[in-house]
Amino acid sequence: MRRLEKAIHEARRQADVVMVSIHSHEMKGENKALPAQFIEIAARNCIDAGADAVIGHGPHILRGIEVYRGKPIFYSLGNFIFHNETVTTLPADFYEKYGLDSRHNVADALDKRSDNNTKGLGVNPLVWESVIAKWNMKENNVASISLHPIELGFGLPRYSRGWPTLSGNQHILEKLQKLSQPYGTNIKIEKGIGVIQL
Q1: In sequence order, what are the residues at sequence separation of 6 or more whose Cβ sits closer than 8 angstroms to the Cβ of residue 4?
Q2: Could you tell me which residue, 142 or 59, shows the higher pLDDT?
Q3: pTM metric for this prediction
Q4: For residues 65 and 49, what is the distance between their CA atoms, to the nearest angstrom?
Q5: Which residues, in sequence order, are CB contacts of 189 under 8 Å at separation 6+?
Q6: By C-alpha distance, which of 193, 89, 110, 102 is closest to 158?
Q7: Rama region for 140: left / alpha / beta (φ>0; ψ in -120 to 50; rest)
Q8: In whole angstroms, how far apart are CA 78 and each of 6, 25, 55, 166?
Q9: For position 123, what pLDDT does the model report?
Q10: Where are the beta strands (DSSP E) in the chain?
Q11: CA 48 to CA 119: how far, in whole Å?
């Protein structure tokens, strides 16, 4: 945390806007949609150190949004582009892990890992939806945040999914509303867009 705060102090002297990116899979209990407590503490410490926003990612799904001291903390924006199943090569240990050898190819290995697309990230619909967050600044402060839902092709073949498309799926915003309520964040849904007024 001290190294991160030091980096934020330096960035604050070098930039108009300082955003911190935190990659974390850790969760509270067994609920992947809730960040571990140490992530909440660390994110708030980043704002206290001078960051204008904290952008979390890692669990591959959306997590709540907190507005702390007038600054947004996105505990996870999920996936924006997700192509982990369109690689053209894999290391030897990947094949070994699934009992495959040099006679097998990438498609064989991906089928084995996902048990022919019946388990893993590919079958979790939450992995394939997110939002694009856009905010307006006024005098170096965030004035409003708009949240535009996107989908990445859940249910499509693996070679077709993973590209973001704007979506009118209000369900994504409603889930984000519920995840953000414990942080005191009120998201209004207006014409298919989530809006946070600060």
Answers
A1: 20, 42, 45, 46, 49
A2: 59
A3: 0.91
A4: 19
A5: 170, 173, 174, 177, 195
A6: 110
A7: left
A8: 27, 11, 10, 15
A9: 94
A10: 19-23, 27-28, 31-35, 53-57, 65-68, 71-74, 129-138, 141-151, 165-166, 188-190, 193-197
A11: 41
Strand partners, 145: 135, 196
Residue 118: partners with Cβ closer than 8 Å, 6 or more residues away:
none
- Return d(Cα 34, Cα 179) in angstroms, integer: 8
Cα 25 from Cα 155, distance rounded (Å): 24
Give me 19's structure tokens: 């955003």
Tens of pLDDT along 124-147?
Answer: 999 999 999 998 888 878 889 999
Query: Smallest Cα–Cα separation from 50: which of 1, 10, 23?
Result: 10
Cβ–Cβ under 8 Å, residues 57 and 73: no
The structure tokens 């697309």 sit at 117
